[in-house]
């Protein structure tokens, strides 16, 4: 199977073929994969070199000139390093663009902390108006990249990862999807690539499982529909996110403010582990493996 | 050098009055007026943009990157008719569109919001690339920075990229009032030139010298004019 990043390269090339407004800015990363688009559209693909402030600002300049820019590099260099450029050159200038990252929280754990970006979604949460997509499969990545580019002049972040679920699911680019129905009045929201692990972790438990591939705007109505127990008028929700633990707790809390509710936010810890190794070992270290998730979810619901 | 174009009632001689409307002061510091002469020459004789073409795809773009102390900029825009003179006295007020750093979404003719230094030139690179990609080869893109603003490393990313890729529609005016704490003689123009820019350094209060430098041919290369002004 191709990776999300491979699929992004093919998809953005097709989008550029179809629409002369679409432009692509990169900073060396993924240059080889994007060779097709670079050759076919030399005027609309800009490789700025290893210059990430310029990557974001020049992308905003393309938008000011009337184009629909797609910007791509690793998450740590797309959101964290040039964060003020993201804040000002898109937000404050009032222009739109599509930021497509790869690398996620620890796709390349042997590369160490410099290539980990668990805080990208939380950072974007400090800014108004960003749509955030977190696909869990290459098919979903393709659908969400297409939706992002087609979204007028919106500001959209697409968080690609090397981690994927076994199969892609149909999505509409806005709502959560119920993938398992429980009767206990408790719900787990699994975001993007953690779905398969969440399904394994909750096998046999009486829980509703929602699958989220778009987390901003947050599907508050969908969460209320799935999580509020109609008999008790209460809700118990566990969020499992592949980035900083608790990133969406505030959004879920607002969504459930109409009823008494309990929330547990699971995800990547903030502390630096100073470990290399494999992604699965980092899952376990952050409590995101199936056994840890089952333990933590069960304990929360029993308490 | 006080030429006025047809339809524009205000001349260079009126600029001090328009600045006083904003500040309430009759005299202005050198820092407040350091950008005035380059701005005036650009809007009066160089830039192909008017209030009527302020949204036209083929207009020249002027990006004020050095957003601090924008009184001269607002005065010139008002003098050229981009917005009413009546806006000027509100300068900096809660309900005024004219802040101490400009906001492109609030002021007609303002191409970028600025205030945080080192954003205009990298954005200008993108605007120039985007216009070229759309076949708009006529419009020139101008960015005005301060000399100390070039301390920001983001500028080096833009200067190097634009120079090495021969982005000929990009122009920079560095208003040099010697405000950088760490500087060496001639280093401003040299930084651009080493990356392949066409570079000139002129007296930033001499309108004819500015005009000649602004309009000097620079085929296939971006162009920088370092305008030395009083401090």
CATH architecture of the largest domain in chain A: 3-Layer(aba) Sandwich
Distance separating the two termini of chain A: 42 Å
Major sheet of chain B = 5 strands, parallel
Query: For this structure, what is the CATH class of chain B?
Result: Alpha Beta
Task: Give the CATH H-level superfamily of chain B.
Answer: Thiamin diphosphate (ThDP)-binding fold, Pyr/PP domains
InterPro entries (chain A): PDH/Transketolase, THDP-binding, Transketo_C/PFOR_II, Transketolase-like_Pyr-bd
Organism (chain A): Streptomyces wadayamensis
Pfam family, one (chain A): Transket_pyr
Domain Transketolase-like pyrimidine-binding (chain A): 2-166
What order do the helices and strands come in, and which of them pair?
The complex is a heterodimer of chains A (303) and B (231).
Chain A (H helix, E strand, L loop, with lengths): L3 H15 L3 E5 L8 H6 L4 E3 L4 H13 L3 E7 H6 L2 H10 L4 E6 L17 H5 L5 E4 L4 H13 L4 E5 L17 E4 L5 E6 L3 H7 L6 E5 L1 E3 L3 H8 E2 L4 E11 L4 H7 L5 E8 L10 H7 L4 H13 L1
Chain B lengths: L14 H9 L6 H4 L2 H11 L14 E4 L6 H9 L40 H14 L7 E6 L6 H12 L5 E7 L10 H8 L3 E6 L3 H8 L8 E6 L3
Parallel strand pairs in B: 1-2, 2-3, 3-5, 4-5
Pfam family, one (chain A): Transket_pyr
Protein name (chain A): Transketolase
Pfam family, one (chain B): Transketolase_N
Description of the structure:
Chain B: This is Transketolase. The complex is a heterodimer of chains A (303) and B (231). Chain A has 303 residues and is α/β, with parallel strands linked by helices. In chain A, 36% of the residues lie in helices and 23% in strands. Chain A has 2 domains: 4-159, Thiamin diphosphate (ThDP)-binding fold, Pyr/PP domains (Rossmann fold, 3-Layer(aba) Sandwich), CATH 3.40.50; 177-302, 3-Layer(aba) Sandwich (Rossmann fold), CATH 3.40.50. In chain A, the strands form 2 sheets. Chain A has a 7-stranded mixed sheet with strand order 2-1-3-4-6-5-10, with helices on both faces. In chain A, strands 7, 8, 9, 11, 12 and 13 form a 6-stranded mixed sheet that branches. In chain A, a hairpin with a 4-residue loop joins strand 11 and strand 12. The radius of gyration of chain A is 19 Å and the shape is globular. In chain A, 55% of the residues are buried. The mean pLDDT of chain A is 97. Chain B is α/β, with parallel strands linked by helices. In chain B, helix 8 (207-214) links the parallel strand 4 and strand 5 (223-228). In chain B, helix 3 packs across helix 8 (207-214). The model of chain B is unreliable at 1-7 (pLDDT under 50). Chains A and B meet through helix 3 and helix 5 of A and helix 5 and helix 6 of B.
């Amino acid at each position: 199977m191709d990776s999300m990043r491979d699929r992004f390269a093919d998809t953005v090339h097709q989008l550029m073929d179809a629409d002369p407004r679409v432009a692509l800015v990169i900073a060396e990363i993924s240059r080889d994969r994007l060779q097709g688009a670079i050759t076919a559209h030399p005027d609309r693909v800009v490789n700025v070199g290893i210059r990430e402030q310029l990557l974001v600002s020049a992308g905003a300049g393309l938008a000011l000139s009337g184009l629909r820019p797609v910007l791509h590099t690793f998450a740590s260099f797309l959101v964290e390093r040039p964060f003020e450029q993201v804040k000002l050159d898109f937000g404050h200038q009032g222009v739109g663009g599509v930021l497509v990252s790869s690398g996620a929280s620890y796709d390349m754990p042997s590369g160490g902390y410099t290539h980990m970006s668990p805080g990208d979604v939380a950072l974007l949460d400090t800014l108004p108006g960003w749509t955030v997509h977190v696909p869990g499969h290459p098919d979903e990545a393709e659908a969400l990249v297409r939706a992002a580019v087609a979204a007028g002049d919106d500001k959209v972040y697409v968080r690609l990862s090397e981690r994927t679920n076994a199969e892609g699911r149909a999505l509409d680019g806005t709502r959560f999807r119920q993938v398992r129905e429980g009767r206990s009045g408790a719900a787990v929201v699994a975001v993007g690539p953690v779905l398969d692990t969440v399904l394994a972790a909750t096998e046999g438990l009486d829980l509703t499982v929602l699958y989220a591939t778009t987390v901003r705007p947050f599907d508050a109505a969908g969460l209320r529909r799935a999580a509020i127990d109609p008999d008790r008028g209460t809700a118990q929700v566990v969020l499992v996110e592949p980035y900083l633990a608790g990133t969406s707790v505030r959004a879920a809390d607002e969504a459930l403010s109409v009823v008494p509710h309990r929330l547990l936010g699971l995800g990547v810890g903030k502390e630096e582990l100073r470990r290399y190794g494999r992604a699965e070992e980092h899952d376990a270290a952050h409590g995101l493996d199936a056994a840890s998730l089952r333990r933590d979810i069960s304990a929360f619901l029993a308490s | 050098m006080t030429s006025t174009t047809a339809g524009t009632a205000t001349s260079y001689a009126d600029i001090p009055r328009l600045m006083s409307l904003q500040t309430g002061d009759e005299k202005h510091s050198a820092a407040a007026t350091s950008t005035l002469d380059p701005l005036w020459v650009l809007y009066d004789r160089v830039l192909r943009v008017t209030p009527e073409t302020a949204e036209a795809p083929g207009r020249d773009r002027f990006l004020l990157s050095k957003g601090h102390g924008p009184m001269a900029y607002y005065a010139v825009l008002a003098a050229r008719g981009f917005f009413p003179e009546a806006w000027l006295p509100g300068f900096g007020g809660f309900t005024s569109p004219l802040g101490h750093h400009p906001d492109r979404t609030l002021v007609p003719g303002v191409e970028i919001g600025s205030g945080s230094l080192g954003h205009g030139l990298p954005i200008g690179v993108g605007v120039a690339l985007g216009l070229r990609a759309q076949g708009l080869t006529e419009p020139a893109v101008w960015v005005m920075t301060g000399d100390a603003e070039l301390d920001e490393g983001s500028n080096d990313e833009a200067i190097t990229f634009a120079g090495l890729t021969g982005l000929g529609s990009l122009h920079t005016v560095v208003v040099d009032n010697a405000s950088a704490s760490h500087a060496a003689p001639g280093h401003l123009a040299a930084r651009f030139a080493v990356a392949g820019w066409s570079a000139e350094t002129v007296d930033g209060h001499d309108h004819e010298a500015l005009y000649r430098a602004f309009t000097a041919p620079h085929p296939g290369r971006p162009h920088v004019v370092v305008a030395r002004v009083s401090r």
